[in-house]
Amino acid sequence: MIREEDRTSGERVLTGVAVSKGIAIGRAHVLKSRDVSVAHRHLGPADVPGEVDRFLRAVDQSIQQLQHLREKLTEDHEDPLSILEAHQVMLRDELLTSGTIRRIEEERINAEWATLKTTDQILQVFSHIDDEYFRQRRSDVQFVSDRILRNLVGQGDLSVHAPPDAVVVARDFSPADVVQLQRCAVAGFVSEVGGLTSHSALVARAFELPMVVGIEQVWSQIDKDSFVVVDAHEGTVLVDPVPQTIAQYRSRARDLMVLERSLLQDRQLPAETTDGVRVILLANIELADEAQTALEHGAEGIGLYRTEYFYMSRSTFPTEEELIEDLQSVVLTMTNRPVTFRTFDLGGDKAAQLFRLHPSPNPALGLRSTRLALEHRDVFKTQLRAMIRSVNGGKLRLMFPMISDVSELRAARSILDEATIELEHEGFTMPSQIAVGIMIEMPSATILADDLAKECDFFSIGSNDLIQYALAIDRSNEHVAHLYRPLHPAIIRMTKNVVEAAHDGGLRVSVCGAMAGEPLYALVLLGIGVDELSMPPAALPPVRRAIRQISYEKAAAMADELVRLPTLLDIQQALARFVETEYEHESVTISEPGVRLPWKHRPVGRKSSN
Length: 610
Ligand code: PEP
Ligand code: MG
Prior knowledge:
Layout: E1 12-15, E2 17-20, E3 23-30, H1 48-75, H2 82-91, H3 94-107, H4 111-127, H5 132-153, E4 167-170, H6 175-183, E5 188-191, H7 199-206, E6 211-213, H8 218-221, E7 227-231, E8 236-239, H9 243-264, E9 271-272, E10 278-285, H10 290-296, E11 302-306, H11 309-312, H12 320-333, E12 339-342, H13 369-375, H14 377-390, E13 395-400, H15 406-425, E14 433-440, H16 443-447, H17 449-453, E15 458-461, H18 463-471, H19 489-504, E16 508-511, H20 519-528, E17 532-535, H21 540-548, H22 552-562, H23 568-582, E18 586-592, E19 595-599
Parallel strand pairs: 3-4, 4-5, 5-6, 10-11, 10-17, 11-12, 12-13, 13-14, 14-15, 15-16, 16-17
Antiparallel strand pairs: 1-8, 2-6, 3-7, 7-8, 9-10, 18-19
The chain binds phosphoenolpyruvate (PEP) and magnesium ion.
Magnesium ion binds near residues 401, 462, 464 and 465.
């Protein structure tokens, strides 16, 4: 960490939560109306009335959309959200509407530009009022203005852009935004909204791009083009840092790179404990391109291909052939290593525009994942057919996400059976083997694990969702991020139950949630008896080293103790004792909220014992 006394005036420190580790140094690119790219045009006098009409039509459309949303909520026996009503009122408001029309007429600028200027002016007025209520209203003005802008430019263009090496600042990033922005070669992300396992954070981690979330009103705290340092180890963002601070962070970034390189040297070594127990280390990927990165980090296969990303930034459903091409490229890159396709897990925080889902006040509990797939059988079957065909007669491993019970598993399997029968009739080469797994990510599935084990071939624990649903903590909500605890006694015991049920039924079990990629948690999972760990590629090297430095016997004894402890604090303290005794103090620390744990890394250059 950079020392406090080094921070002199002019430099501001904003504190949030680090959700994708790393250090980013660069200029801020603030996405104000993040969904809309707006043209600035001057108008000729004759164009003014038409432009005012265009603006009024966009306002009307916005009011209608909100009305539709309110009616839908009423139909579903929900109270109409007063916030929607408030936004409708704002749309009719003098300040915003008449203010914009005046600009179009007097400044002769196009409607989008005029809307932006009026919005900025209103936001400025609000920013001088130091009151929580008015701070909240700022986001409402932004929301309403974004809606008008989206209607002005047409709903189609949802793309976002930023200059290379920029630190992108926004209220919120959708997973698709992160994917698009990494293609622009940005350096990192800072947002107000988000959580440790929100899908945007997972994508940022997959691309090894630092991300800090949970900074209130961040877009108004960082000016466009100001210099920033994102410390996504500490969860801080330094705005306008002094040269010494920048130098310190550059040197820290270099140290981390050296450590990373040293860890990468071991990538071909097995993740084997000192007493010879082998854990299979696999990678999680969101896009086919990442398979190469997985190999470079020493993945023994793909434990989770989140195939839904292929659907996310499209305006039409992919065809069977398009899906095959994508899936096949992963299989080919991984040569003979296992590849686990997860059927699409859309909905929740993974926007599923293609399905035209109605906005849900509670998306994590709404129509998502396998339930959504079961309501769109044709789309689901197309994907299953593509999966079967993509392995070209080889072994197929696929898993269904968010299975709650045996009947849901059977329903999903029946569509897989239909797809298999169809393809056989059509004369396609069938896979030499089809292994069907399920993700255990709902508390109901942990209780029914023994029955579920009888009807599938493997389990993969989705700890991100399991923690969300078991502890009632929205994984994307920054306000409860501190309560999102993988070491919670209930999570430890649920995991143990699932592992026992799997092993009793002769199944192997993996963990593919973010927990698997944290060395400390990986040790606990090893001790509990998990057979495989699947994680973002960059997490593989440190987890490999952690496993190679411990005996399974000791990890299992530690886990036995943990499953009996009643509180999170007891568990943290027991783990801290374990790490203190088993690992030497060295320079890398990993932290578990409440307890800082020493962590050991092999000094650069020393040869591994194996
Ligand atoms: C999980 O829930 O742990 C998981 C791996 O699935 P996702 O993060 O994609 O929901
Ligand atoms: Mg999940």
